[in-house]
């Protein structure tokens, strides 16, 4: 079975695949101070009921990536592994100014989105994480670029930190857009505000592409907060990055 590991700035998502079917996934916090042995203990406790025959991973946190390399060499030396980084075959042309700047998770999303939703034309992936990423995928599976915006949680934290009378609130849909108290007003501005941001950027990207049949796919840990409110999102695939890691592993092994 294939273990996939997507290390983000805030959370790490792991998934177990049996061929093309994902059997289980887990979400744990990312700690850049973890050592290779600590990562091994943490991950092993999650997947101990499965026989891991391959590993595919990506990381946007350099300190964790360094320790993951050590973990692989120390504890999984005989297990076929793939690290999504420059030099790995992905089949994704990166049509940007500096391909080395593109996060490996965005490449995985591009590959999976084209494989799953690209039959009818271009795809826009909206990844709700520490930042909100808009990844634009051509009908040929090329990564065309996109947009990066502050994520939902860090925006709320920044507002609470800088405004003396405001505080962090539970991120749920309020009863109405017009908040009747501070909590509801913050919830409305956050939930409806980010939904409006997504819809606005998706529409502007679609106008620039100027083609028919654009599919919009949401993923990421915070997607469920706004996908029911956004008007432009067509599909929700929470395991998109893990599926991309599986596809990359298949191309290299």
- The SSE order reads EEEHEHEHEEEHHEEH
Record the strand order, biggest sheet.
3-2-1-4-5
Radius of gyration, rounded?
19 Å
Summing up helix and strand content along with how strands pair, one would put the structural category as alpha/beta
Per DSSP, the total helix count is: 6
Q: Could you name the CATH class of the largest domain? A: Alpha Beta
CATH architecture of the largest domain: 2-Layer Sandwich
Low-confidence stretches: none
Strand content: 15-25%
CATH fold type of the largest domain = Nucleotidyltransferase, domain 5
Question: Which terms would index this structure?
Answer:
Nucleotidyltransferase, domain 5, five-stranded mixed beta sheet, 2 domains, single chain, alpha/beta, 253 residues
């Amino acid at each position: 079975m294939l273990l996939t590991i997507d290390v983000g700035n805030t959370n790490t998502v792991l998934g177990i695949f049996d061929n093309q079917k994902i059997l289980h996934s887990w979400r744990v916090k990312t700690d850049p101070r973890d050592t290779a042995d600590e990562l091994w203990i943490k991950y092993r406790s999650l997947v101990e009921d499965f026989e891991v025959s391959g590993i595919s991973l990506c990381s946007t946190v350099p300190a964790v990536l360094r320790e993951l390399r050590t973990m692989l060499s120390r504890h999984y030396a005989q297990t076929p592994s793939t690290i999504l980084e420059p030099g790995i075959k992905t089949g994704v042309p990166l049509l940007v100014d500096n391909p080395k700047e593109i996060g490996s998770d965005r490449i995985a999303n591009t590959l999976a989105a084209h494989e799953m939703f690209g039959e009818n034309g271009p795809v826009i992936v909206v990844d709700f994480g520490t930042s909100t990423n808009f990844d634009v995928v051509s009908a040929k599976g090329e990564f065309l670029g996109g947009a990066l915006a502050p994520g939902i949680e860090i925006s709320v934290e920044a507002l609470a930190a800088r405004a003396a009378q405001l505080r962090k609130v539970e991120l749920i849909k309020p009863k109405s857009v017009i908040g009747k108290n501070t909590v509801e007003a913050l919830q409305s501005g956050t939930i409806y505000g980010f939904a409006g941001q997504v819809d606005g950027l998706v529409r502007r990207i679609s106008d620039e592409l100027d083609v028919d049949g654009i599919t919009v796919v949401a993923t990421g840990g915070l997607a469920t907060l706004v996908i029911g409110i956004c008007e432009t999102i067509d599909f929700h695939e929470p395991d998109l990055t893990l599926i991309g890691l599986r596809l990359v592993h298949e191309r290299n092994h």
